[in-house]
Amino acid sequence: MITGFNLSKDVWRWNANVNIISVGCTVENNLIHGCHIGVELAPGDSAKINKNIISHVDTGIAMYGTKLSMISHNIISTILHTNNEYCIEMGGTGAGNTIMRNNLTHSYFGLSIYGAKQTIIKENNIANNKYGDFAYNRCSFFVKYRNNYWGGKTGPIVIQGIIPIFYPKPFGHIGEFDIPYYRIDWHPAKEPYDIPGMR
Hints:
This protein is an all-beta fold. It has strands at 2-3, 6-8, 16-20, 26-28, 31-41, 48-50, 53-64, 70-72, 75-76, 86-91, 97-100, 103-105, 109-114, 119-122, 125-127, 132-138, 144-146, 157-168, 174-185. It has one domain: Pectate Lyase C-like (3 Solenoid), CATH 2.160.20.
């Protein structure tokens, strides 16, 4: 368990304030700021990331290959330091992750989802992000969106994604065309959730 820390680091390039590679860790009630990634799960299976305040980062929480983890009641924002900022980034994650009751605001994009599966994203405040609420929703299957707050937008909310198809081209090159697909948050919240963060 990592709890009660004020974690800051002034080096911006390629570092994480908390890096988890083991199973069953809890990161709770921390103030995390001033780094490339606030909390990195790689894979960090069965983790609980709860009630942290994460700010002034390029990516708030990054999940790579993670499964069976709960991300809840975090307040995440960034400083808009680069063009690739996400409150939460998921890449190649396994099944059983839940992202619930987080405040995902004031970033370039609220979420980046690439290669995720069987993930539930519910009751989050996803609003006030510069370029949109989602950067990518790519190659992701069985991701469910439930009752999120989308900055006051009334539903249903359509979340667009793509599935890339690769094919051979002459001279050893590879071509790509994208098949669009959609997920829907059928009943978005009309008002933002009260998410207190740290106790």
